[in-house]
Design a protein that fits this description.
This protein is α+β, with helices and mostly antiparallel strands. Among the domains are: 1-130 and 460-534, P-loop containing nucleotide triphosphate hydrolases (Rossmann fold), CATH 3.40.50; 206-320, no CATH class. Helix content is 53%, strand content 17%. Strands 2-1-4-5-6-7 form a six-stranded antiparallel sheet, with helices on one face.
């Protein structure tokens, strides 16, 4: 919902800030006071274009800022996240129109472009009157509106799953087809590289194990010398460490015979002798295994050279060589079996086209049933709002697909399709007897279109996802009994949406939850428009004024209270 609106230096408005409430917000005021200027300014933060002529004389720029509560608006939250913008409970949208032409847009204090502001506006507000933000006049919304009215979501979800599979497979086929010539060109080259790598047949981490073995082979003489020295020092000399430690053990045994405090040290000496013995045995055994094998050394050097050649040629590491071999192996197999792969994919795609077509046909049939109910409800709503003898019809069209277009198959025929099936849905209407049905998007603007939108919104209220509806010129050509019904319809609609409506009719104004008046006065020899929220007693006077003009009488007050449902 729109929490507040701030306007500065825009047309006749010098500086105003107005807070709006939930429910039905009514704006009244004399003709020319500036009511529509406020709606025009609001249109700026919904993404409508503006010329710098709107900047108030004497100012450098106009500023319009709206604060919207969006904590439950999932689409807005997703859009903000996708664009790396701050997600807050309140969404602040600001437009600045400059005389110099450097107009700027901000969302939550971050600069954005105008198209993004419009995208946000389309998710926040439906504005009915002489404005662009009328969602039901946009043909591409009609199918979604119809589905929201009564479509089984499960059917759409199944269809969309199959459609996604079809799109993925179709993309795969296109990419594969593009590869065909390139793969055939490279097939011989890949075959040569595969043979070169397979001739060496490198193993995983083999270069590391060869380096380790070469280090041993190249130092075999040194290893024999060192292990022989170690063994001699530890065990095989007149003054070996082992013999010396045996003498130490004997002396400690003598000490222990005298003082048992040496028992632990005697045990540690035994452990040391065992450790010395184990080390001596290990180096002796190692020395016996050292192989002075020049042939093995040459073999390992040659193998290392072959691996290094592959690494230098195919990626710098053995891991890169193996990954490249896997890649070109797959490409080679694909080139060798290209026709089979293409045929298999085409068969899968054809089956998916048929499956998607079957689901789309089921969805289309259900839409026809939903359409009959919607047609009836809207015709009844139009009649209650004074547009009698009207006709309304939801039409479904199916567009054939050309040779180079994606398509699904319905009863063997090719059709264009999207995420909702193969129906192109459009609302048609006739508001006068004898007139042919015409597209709703071509209906003339003004009070009649606002009442048509009100009838549509009333029928779709519970399913409509836009939180704020604005009706400008809702009362053009309306009076008496019909005005009361228009007011009742707005009041009912306000149970599901925040409504802001401009009106001259007391029957509508009397039903407000919050009432605002726009006034025009002179200030410093300049005309200035302002807006203020009326107190309860002021609301009665304003409705009374609408009933009789400027002269308010006791009978007007009485009639106003009666109209507003207040006790007299």
């Amino acid at each position: 919902m729109l929490s507040s609106l701030y306007i500065k230096d825009y047309a006749l408005i010098e500086n105003i800030e107005v807070k709006f409430d939930r429910g039905l917000n009514i704006i009244t005021g004399e003709t020319g006071a500036g009511k529509s200027i406020i709606i025009d300014a609001l249109g700026l933060i919904l993404g409508e274009r503006a010329a710098n002529e709107v900047v108030r004389k004497g100012a450098n720029k106009s500023i319009v800022e709206g604060v919207f509560n969006v904590k439950d608006n999932k689409k807005i939250i997703e859009l903000l996240i996708q664009n790396d913008l701050d997600v807050l409970e309140d969404l602040i949208v600001r437009r600045e129109i400059s005389l110099k032409g450097n107009n700027r847009c901000f969302v939550n204090d971050s600069p954005v472009n105008l198209s993004f502001v419009k995208e946000i506006g389309d998710l926040l507000v439906d504005l009915h009157g002489q404005h662009e933000h009328q969602s039901l006049l946009k043909v591409d919304t009609h199918c979604e509106v119809l589905d929201d009215f009564g479509m089984e979501i499960s059917k759409l979800e199944i269809y969309r799953t199959k459609r996604n599979e079809l799109l993925v497979k179709s993309k795969e086929l296109k990419e594969l087809s593009k590869k065909e010539f390139d793969l055939r060109q490279k097939r011989d080259f890949y075959e040569h590289q595969i043979k070169e790598i397979d001739a060496v047949a490198p193993g995983e981490n083999e270069d590391e194990s060869i380096s380790a073995e070469l280090n041993i082979l190249e130092n075999s003489e040194r290893l024999i010398e060192l292990t022989d020295n170690v063994y001699t020092l530890l065990y095989d000399s007149e003054n070996s460490i082992y013999d010396a430690l045996v003498d130490v053990k004997n002396q400690i045994e003598n000490l222990n015979d005298i003082d048992k405090n040496f028992t632990e040290k005697l045990e540690e000496t035994d452990s040391a002798l065992t450790l010395i013995n184990d080390i001596a045995e290990y180096v002796r055994s190692y020395k016996d295994k050292v192989d002075l094998d020049p042939d093995r050394l040459d073999e390992m050097r040659e193998r290392q050279g072959a691996l290094n050649h592959l690494k230098k040629k195919f990626g710098g590491t053995l891991k890169a060589v193996l990954e490249y071999r896997e890649k070109i192996g797959s490409e080679f197999d694909l080139a060798a079996n290209f026709k089979d792969k293409i045929d298999s994919l085409q068969k899968e795609i054809t089956n998916l086209r048929i499956e998607c077509g079957d689901y789309a046909k089921e969805i289309s049939i259900q839409r026809k049933k939903i359409s009959k109910q919607l047609n009836s409800e809207i015709i009844n709503s139009l009649s209650e709002l004074g547009i009698t003898e009207s006709k309304f019809e939801v039409k479904q069209f199916h567009d054939g697909a050309g040779d180079n277009e994606e398509y699904i198959l319905v009863d063997g025929k090719k059709y264009k399709f999207d995420s909702r099936g193969y129906d192109r849905v459009e609302f048609y209407i006739s508001t006068n007897p004898g007139e042919d049905l015409k597209p709703l998007s071509k209906v003339a603007s003004g009070g009649e279109i606002s009442r048509i939108m009100l009838a549509l919104k009333s029928s779709l209220a519970k399913n409509d996802k836009l939180p704020l509806l604005i009706f400008d010129e809702i009362d053009v050509g309306v009076s008496g009994r019909i005005a009361k019904k228009v007011g009742t319809a707005l009041k009912s609609l306000a149970g599901h949406h925040q409504i802001i409506a401009i009106t001259h009719l007391p029957q509508i104004a009397g039903l407000s939850d919050s009432h605002y008046t726009v006034e025009k006065k002179k200030s410093n020899d300049r005309v200035v428009s302002s807006i203020r929220k009326l107190k309860p007693e002021e609301k009665v006077n304003e409705v009374a004024k609408l009933l009789s003009g400027d002269a308010i009488t006791e009978s007007n007050i009485y009639a106003a209270k009666e109209l507003m449902g207040l006790s007299n």
